[in-house]
Batch of 3 targets.
Target 1
Amino acid sequence: MTLAPESPPSLAKERRTVLPASGPRPVEPAGEQRRSLALRRATDTYALLGSGAAAVGLTALLFVWLLPFNGVIGFLVIAYAFFLGLYALLVSLDEDGPTVRDRLAGVIVRSVGLVMVVALAFVIVYTLWEGRKALPHLNFFTEDMTLAGPLDPLSAGGILHAIVGTLEQILIALVLTVPAGLVCAVFLNEVPGRFARFVRTIVEAMTALPSIVAGLFIYATAILALGTGKSGFAASLALGVMMLPIIIRAADVVIRLVPGSLREASYALGTSRWRTAWHVVLPTARSGLTTSVILGTARGVGETSPVLLTAGFTAEMNADPFNGPQVSLPLATFEFVKSPEPAMIARGFGTAATLMALVLLLFVLARLIGGRAPGKLTRRQTHRRVLASRRDAERFASRAHTGAQGPGAAVTSSAPTSSVPAVKPNRSTP
C-alpha cells in the first residue's frame, strides 16, 4: 500500500487556522450590514398594527362619508384589501422585493387560517346556542319520536333512534371499508404496474363522486335488483361507497411516505413482500392510516341523501339494521329543521350538536387505538415483551447450568442403568 507523502512543514504552518486576537472587533466594510436572525421584530408588529388601523379608518371613511356603501361583508373585504396594500407599502420601506413578497404571502396564509378557525367556531357556537333548549332534557337522549309530534313540548320525544341508527350504519360501513381500503392502498404501493395505475385513477375519480349518485347506485342494485328493501344495511353500503375512495387515497399517500430503506432492510433479511408490508410498512404508517380512517368516517357520518334513499325515514326505534327503515342523525336533523315549529327546530339543532359530539368521540377513540408513534408499544405489549424476556433469561440460565455440569453428566443421568460403561465424548480439537 502506497502512503501519501507528508506535506512539508512550511505548508502545514500555512494551513493552520489563525484565531483573531482578543480585543475590539475589526470594522466591517461600509457596504455590508449584519442582519438580525430574530423571528419577530418590533418593526413587524408596528407594520401589522399600523396597516390594520389605517385600513379600518380608510374603509370607514369610504363607507360613511364618500361612497353609499353598506354591509358588513363589503366592509371587511375592502378593509382587508387596504390592509394588504398598506402592509406591503410599510414593509417595502425597510426590506427588498423578495422579503416583501414573503411577508405578504405569510400574512395571507395566516389570514385564511384565521378565517377558517373563526368560521368553525361560529358554526359550533351557533349550533349549540340554537339547540340549548333541547339539550338539557334527558328524554332528548333516551326516547324516540313515536309519541311526540310537532306541537309537543321538548319534554316529550327524543333522538335515541337516530343515535342508534348512526352508530350501526357507520360501524358496518367501517367494517366493510377499512380492511378493503387498507389492502387496496398496500396493493397500489407494493405491486406497481398498469393495473395499479388504473385502480389509482378510478379511486381519484371516485373521491369527487356526488353522494346522491352513491345512494342511487345502492338503491338500483341492492333495493330494486336484489329486493332487499330499505334498511340500515343498505345505507351502510351507500356510506361505504362514499368512504372507500377517501380511505384508499389518504392511505396511499401515507404509505408512500414510508422510507424505502425500511423495506430494503426487511428484504435483505429474507422477508417476503407481504410480510414486509404487514410487519414493517403498516406499523410505521399507523398514525397516518388512522388519519385516513378518520377522514373517511367524517365523510360518511354526515351524509344525508344516501341514507334518505336507502334507509328511508321512521320515527320509531329500529335496532335491526337488516330489516325495516332506519334513520340517522343527519337525516333526523334535516327532517326536524324543515318544520316551522320552534320546538322541532330546536330538536334539529340539538341533533346536530349531538352529531358533532359523536364524531368527536369517534375521532378520540381512533386516535387512542391507532395514533401511537412508530415503534411505540402499549402497556400490554410492553408487559408481554417483559414476560418474554424473563422466559428467555430463564432458558439461557438453565442452558448455562447444564453446560457447567458437563455433557458427560447429562449423558450419564439420562442414560439407563447398564453394565456397559458410558462412552465419554471426544473433546480433542481437529
Target 2
Amino acid sequence: MRISGVGWGCVLVALLGLVLGRVLGWVELAALGAGLGGVLVACLLMTVGRARYAVTLDMADNRVKIGERAVGRIEIRNAARRRSLPSRLELPVGAGLAELAIPSLAPDATHDELFAIPTARRAVVVVGPVRSVRGDPLGIARRSVLWTRPVDLYVHPALVALGGASAGLLRDLEGQSTRDLSDSDMSFHALRDYVAGDDRRYIHWRTTARRGKLMVKQFEDTRRTQTVLALATSPGDYADDDEFEIAVSTVASIGVQTLRDERDLAVLAGPGSLRVNTPPLLLDDCSGLEQDPTGADVTLLGRRVVRETPQCSVAVLVTGSVPTDGDLRLGTRHLPAGTRTLVVRCELGAEVSVRTQGQLTLGTLGSLDDLPRLLRRVVS
C-alpha cells in the first residue's frame, strides 16, 4: 500500500485539527480533523481486498526493426470462484504508462487487451510488469499487485545490405600469412635440413633423394582475419543524435555481414564489448547503445582495440563529424603495424569520400544508404 503526498498532508491536518481543537476548545477545528480522519479511513477501506487474476503478457516479437510496430497482448483470467468486480490494470511501457479497464469477469472467464508500441527510435523498451491497482478517487491511497515480469523489447537499428560490398575489405577466409615460421601450417615457405624430432610427414623426398640428406618442408604461420569494430560513444564526437544513429547503424551493418560471412568479429562499444555469437544478439546490444560523457572518443579507440583485441587484422573505427583529420590519425596511431584500418566519419548529408594513406583509410559517410558505395571505394 502506498499513501500519496496528498494523503500524508491530510493525515497531518487531521491530527492538528483534533489536537488543537481539543486543546483550544475549537469545536469547528476538531470537527475538521474528525472529518478528514473519516475520509482517510474510507480511502484506506477502498484498497482492501484483492482480485485473483491469472495474467499473461505476450509480445508477438521481442525483436523489431526501427519503424515497425510492436504488437502485444494481455490476457486476464478470473481465477476466483466468484465473479470479479471491475478493476484497472497498469502497463508500464518504457517511460510511459498505459491504463486498461477490466470489466467484471465470471469465474474462469477471460478478457484480452491488444496494444501496439510505436518504435520510431532505436531502444530497449521495458514492457511491464502488469499490475492491478486498487485506490480511491481522490488519489490518497493505492495498493498495487504485480502479475507479470517485465519483458524487454529490442528495437534494432536500421541496417543496409552489404552483400559483396565488404568482400574486399573483410576477405581472407584462408588466413593471412605472417613472417613467423612454422613446421606445420597451410602456406609453404622453404626447405631446411632435417633435425631429430621433426615430423617425418613433412620430409620432402624428392629433394632428399637429390641431395642425399633428409630435407623437411617449412611453412609460414597463417592467421584467420579478425575484424574489430570500435564505436566512439562520446557526445563530443557527434554534431547531433542523428549522426550517432548513423554510426550505430554502420557498426551494426558491418557486424552482421561479418558474422554472416563466418569471420571472427569483436565489437567494442560503450563500457564493454558487444555479444557477437549471432546477428540477433549483436543487434540486441546495439539497440541499447547510448552516448555517454564518460565514453571513449575516437582518439582513444586505437588504444582500446590494442588492449582488448591485440591480434586484430582489420580495424574499423566509427565516429561523428566533429573530430578533425588529426584526431582520426591520432586514434589509429597505436594500432599494430600491418593492421588494415578504416576510419568512418559519419557526417549527415555529406558526400561519400575515401582517402587512403598506407594501411590507413579515412572515409566520410553522409547516410547509411551510402555505406555499400563507401566500402566498394575502399577496396577498389
Target 3
Amino acid sequence: MTDETAGEAEPASGSRRDGRGWHGWRTAAEAALYGPGGFYRRPEGPAGHFRTSVHASPLFARAVARLLCRVDEALGRPGALDFVDMGAGRGELVTGVLAALPADVAARARGYAVERADRPAGLDPRITWLPEPPAAITGLLFANEWLDNVPVDVAEVDPAGVPRLVLVAEDGSERLGEPVTGAEADWLARWWPLPAEEGLRAEIGLPRDLAWASAAGRVVRGLAVAVDYAHTRDTRPPFGTLTGFREGRETTPVPDGSCDITAHVALDACAAAGAPDPLRGTRPAEGDGSAGREPEGTPRTSPDAPHATPDSPRMPSSEACVPPEQALASRNTTSAPPDTPIAPPTPKNTARTPHGTAQELPGAARMSSPARLLTQRAALRALDLTGARPPLTLASTDPAAYVRALASAGEAGELTAPGGLGDFGWLVQPVGVPDPLETAP
C-alpha cells in the first residue's frame, strides 16, 4: 500500500466515507459481505463455497449435541432447553444437533438459528430463524466460526511509527488514513501492541469483543461457546491476518462482494470482554449497543485450507493434509503447549500451524474469568470424539461394521487433526453452571 496519510480520510472508527470511495475495512467488509447482493446473502449459502467442521462430518453436530446434553444436566433438566446457533448459515448445525439429541432432551429443546440471510426453504419447522439471539437463553449458545465474520478495521504503522487506519477502495486498493485514536487505540494498546516499525499491521478486534459480550450476555444460565481460528496476545502475527477467498482459493481481499473477507479472532480479548462483572454479577456494559447489531454472518472456514466449492473441497475428506498452494495464510495459530507462545505465522499461502500437540491455548491459565480457551482437539476429545481406529479383530468378525467404524474414525481424525481443524480455538464461557468441558486436558 502507499504511505499516504490523508487528512481527508475518515476517523479511526471507520464509520464514515471521505466522498471518494475510501473507507475503513470494517465499513467495507460490512457492505461487501452483508449488504444487498453481499457475499453471504448469495442463495447457495456457505456450503456452496467452502467446508467448516459442520460440513466436514455429522460427528461434529453429534458432539455439540452431547455438549448440550451436559449443559442440560448441569441446569437440572429444565422444561425448556435452548440451543442457539450463531451465524447459522443455512441451519446445518442446529438441524444436526436437534436430530442427534435423545428423545427426552429433544422434546424439551428449542432450536434457534441466528443469521442475517433469509430462512432457507424446507428448514425444520422446530427451528426459529432470527436476525439476533434471543434476549434470554437457558442452555447453550454456540458460535461456530461466527466472530471471524464480524468486520473489523485494520491498523498499519506509518514511517513515523504511528498506527493509522487502513483505508480501502472497492477495488481493494489501500492507503493510510488518520491515526488510530480513542477506544480503538486503547484496544490495540491492551491486546495487540504495535511496535514503531513501519508496515506492521493489526486487526482492531473491539467490534468482536462487543459482539461476543452481547451474545454471551444473553445466556442467563448455561454455556456460551465460540469456535474460530484464533491467536492470543503474545502471539499476534506481525502483519495481521486479513485475507480473502473466492471459489475455494485464497485471494487478495477485495470489498466488492465477489469474495469472502476474513481475519483471525483474538479470542483472549473476546473472553475478557464476555466475562461477568464481579462487582455487579452481570456482563460488562455494551456501550452504545452496537454489539447487538454486529453482523451475525455465516460461519466460514476451517483452519487447514481455504474455502472450496462442493466439487473442490477445502480439505481431503479423510485427512487434514493441505496442498501448500491452497493452505490458509494465517488461520492455524492456536496449537501450542500451555503457557508457551504460539509459533509466528509463516509467509502468505503457506500453512501457519505450529506442530505442537498441546491441548490448552496459551493464556488460558492466566485468565481471571471463568472462561477457558481450548483447542478443538481437546474439546472434542472431552466430548468423547477421539478418532481412534477400530480394533482389527472387528474386521474379521463384522467386516461391514469395521468399514463403518473406520470411516467414522477418519472423520473424527479430520475434526481433531493437528495442523487442521483440531487447532481451532474454543472459547468456553460457563454462566451459572460448572464447565461441562472441565474434563478436557
